[in-house]
Amino acid sequence: MFTLRPDNNMFGVNDPANNEFLQRNHEDREQQTQVALREAERVLPGAERIDWRHRTMSVKKLREAVAETAFPQLLRAGVQNFLFDGYEQVAVIFPDLVRVVNSTMYEELYAPMYGAELPKQVDPGQRFEESRLLGLDKRLRNIKFGRMLDIERELVDDDQTGQIIQKASSMGERVRYVEELAVMNAILNATYTTALGNRFSAPGRISQIHLEEATVALHEMRDPLGQLIMVQPDTILVSPSDEFEAAKLLQSALQPSVPGGSGLTAGTAVSGTTGWTMTMNPLQGLFQLKVSRFLPSKASAVKGLDGANGACILMQSKKSLVFQDRDPLEVAQEAQNAGESFSRDLYRWRVRRRFNCAMIESRYAFRLN
Fold first, then answer.
1. Cα dist. 294→184, 241, 309, 344 in Å?
2. Which whole-number Å values give the CA distances from 31 to 36, 311, 338, in the listed order?
3. C-alpha angle with apex 253: 97 to 309, nearest 5 degrees?
4. Which residues contact 123 (CB under 8 A, 6 or more apart)?
5. FRET partner for 172 with CA separation of 20 to 30 A, picked from 55, 92, 261, 358?
6. Cα–Cα dist 187/357, whole Å
7. CA 66 → CA 59, 72, 76, 77, distances in Å?
8. Which residues pair with 324 in a beta bridge?
9. CA-to-CA distance for 189 and 203, rounded, in angstroms?
10. pLDDT in tens, 93-135
């Protein structure tokens, strides 16, 4: 049996060599502390009067402060989510109009063929006629769209108002707007001529008689070989200035306008005209109404074909209007230790989208104005 007794010397406390080492270590720490205080005084005058040993200056508090700075990291990561949310939630109409084609190249080729000529009666011993084939040859090159979003670091770290979320969301919305604008430009820039039969010689504001005549013209549309294309118009596209006019024409249960030619009234309409008061509306439920803010309006600088009213197009959706999708929406953040983010203390995001849109065959649309 033996008993352990406290003996300071077993830890080397009474060793003269060890005491000398501890003394030098203490002096080194004091010297480092004085250097740190002089540096703090240079950066922050009056620092020597701060009691660094006070409980509010404890190491525990400093660690909590470092942990709190991790919150902006989460907020910055959320910016990308709000960019995508803004992109998905914005109200646009073009997905209901276009035929989406996934692209894998710099430029895509489109060569749709018209139908073959109809067979003809052949008498005994008569030679069969040869049928001709015609088609289109169009190229559609992908276009890149993008923008930078710069946010000051202090705004990210100190923001309590939600402005960062609003800015990020609006950036996603702008990308969606560009897509809608590109589709509307493709529709407006299609070929509309009286020779093709897809526009009026005297265009004007949307009306019942114009819609009826445009519908008949599309039903009778022919290809370059003289064959019927079998267009089935199902959509009316208007600007905001004609939204309610079109809604009354398409949704009224009864006759929405006075029958007869332009300028006639109930008192001057020619007798014998089909349709009158309390008769059914032939346009009800015939087309779906789409309103785009990016079409020329009556109040905009650029107006419809008549130079006075908004644009109006009757078309078959998802047929000839192609949305060529090359790269989806991409959101990337610049590295914090490089570029403008480092030199200007910014958080920088970049949005990128690559696509294009075009009307491959204009015979599937009729421009009323």
1. 7, 12, 14, 37
2. 9, 81, 36
3. 50
4. none
5. 358
6. 9
7. 11, 12, 17, 18
8. 101, 356
9. 16
10. 999 999 999 999 999 988 777 777 777 788 888 888 777 766 6
Tokens in use for 156? 């990210």
The amino acid that residue 276 corresponds to is W
Task: Identify the bridge partners of residue 312 per DSSP, sorted by sequence position.
Answer: 238
DSSP state of 273: -
User: If you write DSSP's letter for every residue of 147-208 in order, what string do you get?
Assistant: EEEEEEHHHHHH--SSHHHHHHHHHHHHHHHHHHHHHHHHHHTS---TTTTSB-SS--S--H
Mean per-residue pLDDT of the chain: 78
DSSP structural state of residue 260: S
Q: What tens digit of pLDDT does each residue of 31-76 get?
A: 776 766 666 666 555 555 556 555 555 444 433 333 334 344 444 5
| Separation between Cα atoms, residue 355 and residue 274, nearest integer Å | 48
Q: Give the Cβ contact number of residue 168 at 10 Å.
A: 25
Please name the residues in contact with 286: beta carbons below 8 A apart, sequence gap of 6 or more.
215, 250
Q: Which residues contact 318 (CB under 8 A, 6 or more apart)?
A: 96, 97, 98, 99
Can you read off the two tokens belonging to residue 306?
A: 């008549």
Output helix, strand, coil percentages for the chain, rounded to the nearest 5: 35, 20, 45
Q: Which of 123-127, 236-240, 262-266 has the highest mean predicted lDDT (pLDDT)?
A: 236-240
Helices 70-89 and 163-188 sit at what angle, rounded to 10 degrees? 30
